[in-house]
Write a structure and sequence with these properties.
With about 400 residues, the chain is α+β, with helices and mostly antiparallel strands. It is built from 8 helices and 12 strands.
């Protein structure tokens, strides 16, 4: 558009009257354009970036509601096994620990005194046991020697009786042979002839033969009676030897019992068992870490008194963390185990979590507004590792509407 066409006529006439050329008054002066300052450019860039982030966040959270969650971990409470005084604490809050690492140590003066007394009693009983064992060894040696002497005499007597019985049996056989011989042989001396025949009838063939036959019968009967008596004596000797052998086998246990070895061993065993039990209780004064974790809290100080079962150290399993989100029961109906949720950690770090468990019962939470009950939903990690933030940190949980 031409500038002269739009300029008013009065202005042109005025310029002409004053002697100024019309062309100079009609055309305005053109100033050179200066470039924008760097500060202004930076402000414009930041404003554009903030606007973009806001728009992106609005699109992202559109259709989702955020609820508060709390970062938790499996808690292990290490308590005192018995009453005592905290002698030393070997860990501090936030320290990482491994299985078997010493956490704290207690002291119990009463338990220490009992252990010392039992050790003293054990030494005394060991000395007493050595004494009675020595007494038992001496007594056993003397008694065993007496038994061996008696057994030897019995064996000699048994041998003599056996020899005598054999002689009587031979004599009996000779007289039996004499009685079973022919009548003509009665005029001669009887000879030793082996025979198994029984007694024959007595034939009264002359006075001399009758006397000899009667005499032979008496001799044979006497030899048989003597052999039977000797057999009975030999049986008694054998029975006596068996009895002596039984006594010798039982001698060790009877002598030990009579001098008190068994009693001393029983008392010593009882004291050792009691001492072992006290030492196990002493081992319980030192508590070690049961698993990998991080020390969450230390509830006692060195020198403080504790009772049996009092918590001293709390451990967190930092490798097995999870979230507990308080979600209204009306919103929980849209969730199920395995549902992916967006989590916003401190410093706006975004992660993904999976719904692990949904308790079947809702509860009222103090301080919450509204009449809707809250459900403590457990959320576990999924995908990228969660950032290392302190246990108990609050995390936003976005639940789709």
């Amino acid at each position: 558009m031409d500038t002269t066409d739009t300029m008013p006529t009065d202005t042109i006439n005025s310029a002409a009257t004053n002697g100024t050329p019309a062309t100079d008054a009609a055309v305005p002066s053109i100033r050179p354009t200066r470039p924008a300052s760097p500060r202004r450019f930076a402000v414009l860039c930041v404003a554009a970036l903030a606007t973009g982030i806001g728009v992106a966040a609005w699109f992202e959270v559109r259709g989702a509601t955020s609820y508060a969650g709390r970062l938790e971990a499996r808690t292990i409470t290490v308590a005192a096994g018995r009453a005592g005084k905290v002698l030393s604490l070997n860990v501090t809050t936030g320290q990482r620990v491994v299985p078997g690492e010493k956490l704290f140590e207690l002291s119990d003066d009463r338990l220490t005194g009992e252990i010392i007394a039992k050790k003293r009693e054990q030494v005394e009983l060991e000395s007493e046991l050595q004494r009675v064992r020595a007494t038992a060894d001496v007594e056993l040696e003397w008694r065993r020697r007496d038994l061996q002497s008696e057994a030897f005499q019995t064996q000699l007597k048994a041998a003599a009786v056996t020899q005598e019985r054999l002689s009587r049996q031979v004599e009996q056989l000779a007289w039996q042979e004499q009685l079973t011989g022919r009548p003509a042989d009665w005029n001669v001396k009887p000879t030793l002839v082996a025979s198994t025949a029984t007694f024959g009838p007595v034939v009264l063939d002359g006075h001399a033969r009758d006397e000899r036959r009667v005499l032979a019968m008496l001799k044979e009967d006497a030899a048989a009676s003597a052999a039977e008596a000797l057999t009975a004596q030999l049986t008694l000797c054998e029975q006596r030897l068996e009895r002596l052998k039984t006594l010798d086998d039982e001698l060790t246990s009877k002598v030990r019992l009579s001098v008190g070895v068994e009693l001393a061993e029983t008392r010593l065993k009882r004291v050792k068992d009691e001492l072992s039990s006290l030492e196990q209780q002493c081992d319980s004064l030192t508590r070690t870490c049961p698993s990998h974790g991080v020390v969450g809290a230390v509830h006692r100080e060195s020198g403080s008194l504790v009772g049996a079962g009092d918590a001293v150290v709390e451990l967190f399993d930092d490798d097995r963390r999870h979230l507990v989100a308080s979600i209204p029961s009306s919103a929980v109906a849209k969730l199920k185990p395995g549902t992916k949720l967006t989590l916003i950690f401190p410093a706006r770090s975004k992660r993904i979590g999976l719904v692990a468990t949904i308790p079947p019962q809702a509860m009222r939470i103090e301080g919450e507004d509204g009449d809707d009950s809250q459900v403590a939903v457990k959320i576990e990690p999924a995908g990228k590792l969660w950032p290392k933030v302190p246990i108990g940190s609050r995390v936003k949980v976005q639940v789709p509407q």
